[in-house]
Amino acid sequence: MSVASLGRAARESVSGLPRAFWWLWTSTLINRLGAFVATFMALYLTLDRGYSASYAGLVASLHGLGGVVSSLGSGVMTDRLGRRPTLLVAQVSTAFSVALLGFMRDPVAIAAVAFLVGMASNASRPAVQAMMADIVKPEDRVRAFSLNYWAINLGFAVSSAGAGFVAQYSYLAGFLGEAALTLVCAVLVFLKLPESRPVRTAVEQATESAVRLGTVLRDGRFMSVVGLSFVVALLFQQASVGLPVAMGKDGFSSADYGMAVAVNGVLIVVLQIPVTRFIEHRDPRRLLIISSVVAGYGFGLTAFAGSIGLYALTVCVWTLAEIVNAPTQTGLVVRLSPVHGRGRYQGMYTMSWAVAALVAPLMSGVIIDRFGAEWLWGTCAVLGTVAALGYGVLMRGLPPQGGPVPVRAGHSVERSSEQPSERSSEQPSEQPSRRTATP
Asked: Quick one: which of 101, 159, 160, 305 could link to 310 by a disulfide (CB 3.0–4.6 Å)?
């Protein structure tokens, strides 16, 4: 492609999205640029504080458990209090809890505060995804979720490299730096982002039943999708739990693992936007089926890897699946969510990834210890096939894109064009990856 063609493609990839989306996108990028705790927590506890690997694992599990606990609660807050208040509470709480964690010395206190950090940092995800669905037109949502995912990975790549240098100087500086940048995100949300929660009229409030957690749990198709997202999350979690263990047993060093898995971040940063341009208007059912199979067999091929080059090749395969799956699946969650229950539905979806982050280490450890790494990679191929079959069955007769995109009166968020039959009677005004933490 010529330089002019590349420039035109780049402009088309980012054009047509509302200003509020870009402020939310900027907040995501700043948040991930400051990521430190999740990346170097284990090294901090074992090397700097002198604790055992078992204790570091316990703290990591408590951090993940905090995310599981907060997923549903933050979803309810997103619907009841609004997207913006939930974001502000989550970000301010994250900043203070991360800063506090840097000063903790007692092992019990460290574990307790790590749990709080996990709760606070995960609480913003349903609000971010619900707000993005509110302010972006249905036909642009896959592209918007993809751009947000791209920002997450770009920020993660930069912060991972920078955190290494910060850690050499001071781990405390890393904790305080993440807290400061998270506060910057909160200030940005406070100053630049209006509330986007749809407002029901008095008639709607009188005639529509409230969407509660029980409503979500009784939604058979959606809960099946949540189950499939859990299966897919188990696959992608193996990049950080099963893959390093398997490579270590094959005699490769941590540096070798770093070189192989670095391909994942590079490919996402380079390919996420152009691949999204190719897939954004294609059949989501087919995309999710293909990406599930490619992810499962991409990890399955790891059983045949015997060199860094071959390991890196398998990373390329499942990374392509990740690039396709992430925005498509988040868009599917929005399509299956009622407008006034987006927070709860996104909270349930977020919880599936948080639970996978807890289950995946146990699953990979048990399988590798008892049967060998080859059985783990074979299991991944089976799980990918199961997920593909599930998406094939569940997405028959998928409801069309749509749903109102309202905002509170008096705010300036751009209003998207919707089909008249799908528009609500509101007053006019107004989607883990293992790295899917959002501001």
From this structure: 305
